[in-house]
């Protein structure tokens, strides 16, 4: 009646539902979500070579971080999935809110202002045309 141990059943179920598209994820990037999304919107839906060109000439700090992440996703596609880099395009790219570091800035007359240093998690999913 039983098909195996509970962990073995879960492992088989997770293998069946595993994502087959190549992707890369960066956790705890020291960029706010809004600033990362501005760059991600510029490359969404583009092919990989065009996206790399856009990122290399963008003056924003987030573009250098996302360029490194995109190169990682391309390497994952070539090595793990055996896909060609010429046929790849960015199917999904999004940033989600991470934890916030809360710091204190001393101000006049004994007051203290809070500074929130925001983080985000950036995901890039590629696919083949």
UniProtKB/TrEMBL annotation:
SUPFAM superfamilies: Ribosomal protein L22 (SSF54843). The keyword Signal does not apply. GO terms for molecular function: rRNA binding; structural constituent of ribosome. Signal peptide: none annotated. Residues 9-21 have a biased composition (Basic and acidic residues). Transmembrane segments: none annotated. GO terms for biological process: translation. Keywords: Ribonucleoprotein, Ribosomal protein, RNA-binding, rRNA-binding. Residues 1-21 are annotated as: Disordered. GO terms for cellular component: cytosolic large ribosomal subunit. Pfam families: Ribosomal_L22. The keyword Cytoplasm does not apply. InterPro entries: Ribosomal_uL22, Ribosomal_uL22_bac/chlpt-type, Ribosomal_uL22_bac/org-type, Ribosomal_uL22_CS, Ribosomal_uL22_sf. Part of the 50S ribosomal subunit. The globular domain of the protein is located near the polypeptide exit tunnel on the outside of the subunit, while an extended beta-hairpin is found that lines the wall of the exit tunnel in the center of the 70S ribosome. Belongs to the universal ribosomal protein uL22 family. NCBIfam families: rplV_bact. HAMAP family: Ribosomal_uL22_B (MF_01331_B). This is Large ribosomal subunit protein uL22.
